[in-house]
Amino acid sequence: QVQLVESGGGLVQPGGSLRLSCAQAGSAFSVYTMAWYRQAPGKQREWVARILASETTTNYADSVKGRFTISRDNAKKTIFLQMNNLKPEDTAVYYCNRDPPTLAWGQGTQVTVSS
Question: What is the DSSP string of 79-104?
Fold first, then answer.
């Protein structure tokens, strides 16, 4: 059974930074495109960023472009999301999954941006 475990969230002031991690247990990892998603209170889950299996191509939602960086370590079956210059509108629960999301969702990690 494949498990996704997100970590690294927290409370940060506007303009601050956080680095999220997502570790996958089980199943193949390195051949799949992986992505970060987020769900803000009262809103649908949305795609944030993806990284291809080759690690050479990344894509970002317009709302985070230039502020967030996705990366991966295939040997550790882990992806990361470096988030800089955080804004209150980045407040959400952040999840990782394949792109498209075919695995069971993990518990996510809460990111709160507030002064």
Answer: EEEEE-S--GGG-EEEEEEESS--SP
